[in-house]
Amino acid sequence: MSADTGDGFGPFCGAIGCTEDADVVIDHPKHGERTVCWDYIGDYEVIRQSQQGENPERD
After folding, report:
1. Do the beta carbons of residue 55 and residue 37 sit within 8 Å?
2. Are 33 and 22 in contact (CB under 8 A)?
């Protein structure tokens, strides 16, 4: 998974069909705040990071 919590209790990515752990909360223009994994950030504004930690690929 994108961020392993080790407990299997999420939070999980809110993108349809994605089963990865959530990494950030984005501001979606049509749907408001959405919790997603790194793969679904797109060009949306990141409001905050989830509690799982940082993305080593983006540091």
Report:
1. no
2. no
Q: Which residues contact 5 (CB under 8 A, 6 or more apart)?
A: 21, 52
- Edge-first strand order for the sheet with 32-36 is 32-36, 24-28, 45-49
d(C-alpha 32, C-alpha 53), whole Å: 22
| Amino acid identity at 11 | P
Grouped pLDDT means (10 residues each) for the chain, 59 residues: 54 92 94 94 92 56
Q: Note the pTM of the prediction, 2 decimals.
A: 0.68
List Cα–Cα distances, 26 to 13, 30, 53, in angstroms: 11, 12, 16
Burial of 56 (0-12, 13-18, 19+ CB in 10 A): exposed
